Amino acid sequence: MSRRLFLQTAGGAAWATSALGSYAFAFEPGFRLQVTPYHVDPPGWPADLQLRAVVIADIHACEPFMPAARIRSIAELANALQPDIVFLLGDYSGGHNFVTGPVMPDQWGEALSVLKAPLGAYAVLGNHDWMHGPLPNMPADDAAGVRNALAAAHIKVLENDAVRLVKDGHPFWVAGLGDQVAGPAGRVGGVDDLPGALAKITDGAPAIMLAHEPFVFKRMPRRVALTLSGHTHGGQVNIPFVQDRVSRVFKDLVYGHIIEDQRHLIISAGLGTSHAPIRFMRPPELVEITVGSAPLGAGS
Q1: What is the DSSP string of the chain?
Q2: How far apart are CA 53 and CA 121, in angstroms?
Q3: What are the sequence ranges of the domains in the chain?
Q4: Domain 34-291 class?
Q5: Phi/psi at 237 (nearest 5 deg)?
Q6: Residues forming beta bridges with residue 174, ordered by sequence position
Q7: Per-residue pLDDT tens digits of the chain, which is 300 residues long
Q8: In b/e form, how buried is each residue of 147-161, taking b as 16+ CB within 10 angstroms?
Q9: Gap between the Cα atoms of 160 and 179, Å rounded
Q10: d(C-alpha 187, C-alpha 185), whole Å
């Protein structure tokens, strides 16, 4: 290879590496946002009950990647999808220290307060909400700040609890599980109680379970029509050797619509980042779900 060709090749490789790095570290996590639609028609769901839900997961509020203004614009996009109900799946606190500053709970809470849906908004907490404050280098408060921010935004937190709702004359349940990883004082071990949450469901109406981590799906009974989770960020970096490792860690529960033994799980890629502000081929997403019979002309 001639010196000129070598320098051109090396220069091209350096440019490509720089461009790829800029995309993964800046553009995809900071600017891309997609709406990912799903249609689920689980066994036992009433044929004439159609529920439209928007799922918001893993916000990981921080400057400059997920500031309050961006969170508000995401909430406004959720409203534009005109859901019947909104589900928030935990990890509102920042997930790494590669930041210019925190976004405090009252700031991201105010941004989320614009959410509007006829049946309301319901939330669970995530491991980062328990393990530390607004950023990993800030002290934990046993998720008190997160709970207060959600309450101020009129978002109901469900921790090993369930609420019965009615749409078009049909009842259904929304249950929420305590975090499966972290608990008071940031201890590892979790505060989840699946039997306790299921015990709050007191009739035969179908149920949707909110669980920050998808691990519990392996134990989820058929009684639950649909489980919704985040936590994995869809692997965050979607290249084969990374995804193979992530699949092993999360026991093949990483991303998308998973069906096992007639049980349905949807795992969101979420919005923010943890460990490092990088995403590659797994852009931030809002999840839009139609539960029940598909509207006329819609695909599955």
Answers
A1: --HHHHHHHHHHHHHHHHHHHHIIIIIHHHH--EEEEEEE--TT--TT--EEEEEE-----EETTB-HHHHHHHHHHHHHT--SEEEE-S--S-B-S-SSEE--HHHHHHHHTT---TT-EEE---HHHHHSSSSTTS---TTHHHHHHHHHTT-EE-SSEEEEEEETTEEEEEEEPPPSSB-GGG-BT----HHHHHHT--SSS-EEEE-SSGGGGGG--TTEEEEEE-SSGGGSB-SHHHHHHHHHHTTT--SEEEEETTEEEEE---SS-BSSS--BS---EEEEEEESSPPTT---
A2: 10
A3: 1-31, 34-291
A4: alpha beta
A5: -120, 110
A6: 163, 208
A7: 444 443 344 344 334 334 444 455 555 655 679 999 999 999 999 999 999 999 999 999 999 999 999 999 999 999 999 999 999 999 999 999 999 999 999 999 999 999 999 999 999 999 999 999 999 999 999 999 999 999 999 999 999 999 999 999 999 999 999 999 999 988 889 999 999 999 999 999 999 999 999 999 999 999 999 999 999 999 998 888 777 887 888 878 999 999 999 999 999 999 999 999 999 989 999 999 999 986 544 444
A8: bebbeebebebbbbb
A9: 9
A10: 5
Structure tokens at 120: 């309301």
CA–CA separation, 58 and 52 (whole Å): 20
Residues in the chain: 300
